[in-house]
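Hi,

I'm pasting everything inline rather than attaching a file, because the server keeps stripping attachments. The sequence lines come first, and each chain or strand is labelled.
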Amino acid sequence: MDINIQFREEGNLLLGLIEGEIDTFTAPILREELEKIELSNEISVELDLSKVSYMDSTGLGVFVAFYKRATKEDVNLKLVNLSTRLTRLFEITGLSELMDIERGGIGHASI
Amino acid sequence: MRAFDYIEIRVPAKPQYVGVIRLTVSGLASRVGFSYDQIEDLKIAVSEAVTNVVQHAYDSYDDGEIVIGHALYDHKIEVMVSDYGNGFNFEEIKAQIGPYQEEENVEFLREGGLGLYLMETLMDEVRVNNNEGGVTVFMTKYVTREQVIDDVKTIIT
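And the predicted assembly:
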């Protein structure tokens, strides 16, 4: 039960690939990694969640916090490649209406 | 004979054991015959209840324990999550939680408070007992459709 996040830059787009389970044990690690990102209105951020195999409300809290910071800094934030399960979690909590999320191709990952 | 099998586990109220509880619930739920999606729902609901205890019940000391009891029936599972820490007022908390609304101001978005909402959404029944010295959450989930359709077929043939 681990979490791993890797970043790469493509021009002014920052891509983050998150891998693992996001729960109360791993959420603080993810939160810290996201807090380290320097945001400026010249960049856009895309977080790829295709490798997230489990997520609950503690994970949602981390993304909400990061989304708030991004909005404040005028940065475009998009969560991409969400599994069917993850998409459902964002939908039932109403977050899909507020945040920019994009479903992935195959919904094999579980939340 | 009892109508159900009962399995109880007890873990320290520490974040690293929430994933262990999830594995347990997942294994037990598949014995009952839940679908993949239902098992994933159960995993989240139970994790939320256990996380609640880990985060709130034992603020000042770290030797607290969580007891998780599972009653396995033919077509349903009952999960009980119990702590011996601080209680919380279910109705009061319930009034402050729920899904986000479209018109909410991003600046003031809550970063928590979805746990109880998710438990209620993902389970069929949720009850919270505030008893002396602790809180117990009871949750029930029924095996749905696929299983029921199988039963109907059996009756027809």
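The radius of gyration of chain A is 13 Å.

If the labels don't parse on your end, tell me and I'll reformat.
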